[in-house]
Model the fold of this input.
Amino acid sequence: MDAVGSERLALCGSHSGGPAAIAYAARYPERVSCLILANTAAGGMDYQEATPSLRVASDLRHIAVDQWEFYTLALANAFSSFSDIETARRWAAAIRAGTSAKAWVIDRDAILQIDVTGVLNSLAVPTLVIHDKSDTIGDFAALASRLASRIPGARFVMTDDPARAIDDFLREGRGPTTPELPSGTAIILFADIADSTALTERLGDTAFRAKARELDGALRTIIREHSGTAIEGKLLGDGVLAVFTSARQAIEAALACGAAGSDGGLPLHLGLHAGDVIREDNNVYGGAVNIASRISGRSAPGEVLVSDTVRSLARTSAGVQFEDRGEQTLKGVGDAVRVRAVVELA
Done:
């Protein structure tokens, strides 16, 4: 940019180029007018999971140096979903012409070490995340949705015409606004996977991790659609923390999150409380956050429990009923808290 005298640009990162674009936009927001991420991920391991070709590259890396031509043919066939042998041959030849076996292996290994997930919530530029349905390299639908849900104000588009989607985004001349974390009174949602240890043992680490990541993206999308803000850095391993300014929207989001968890085979504990929070960087703190967490832990799988404070705020607007579960003694909370279960109207 300095060499060509460019002060600002629209930055696009696709496939394995996504993390570099994300990192640059996070570090130099004043130089990026908007960010476009197409069929990519914030981490190399996530990207590999969505791309059979990278899994082939990883599985066969031990033969790359000694059998470079065979390796590139196998890789190129995986890129084309084993459907176009002639194109795969040309692609393999292009790889061999453009790099050496040793350099390729080093590059592939380096990609797997990249992870810029930690900066997603700090992105402060208009962002478009695209799932290009015509891409044959991998299946990026869940990956792209999860990526968009972690970027404040990002827009998510599924399309088979990415050029048109990008053009429309750039012609608008503006992007989505970055939501502000509330200070003062907020409605706090905690959602945690119920009995995650048993599920991991039953499904296996890899399968459970994949399902949990997919659910995490779905929850964050639901939260955003209900005008809430998911807090990055508060994933708690198996769940998510979010804040809302509306008790009604928080309850609606909690119910939708519960349905998503049940549908995905990962039932959730869900709890809501309202109280003062302290905003610090991209996080929120305070006793109210702790109470919301403890209420979540008391809920049955798939059940939404709320404090009496939330019930009072949403009693006439949420369109649900509340079953009294009595006063509960919560760990780390001095006074007992009256808790109620949310019951959807038939």
User: Anything to note?
Assistant: DSSP finds 13 helices and twelve strands in the chain. Residues 174-178, 233-237 have pLDDT under 50 and may be disordered.
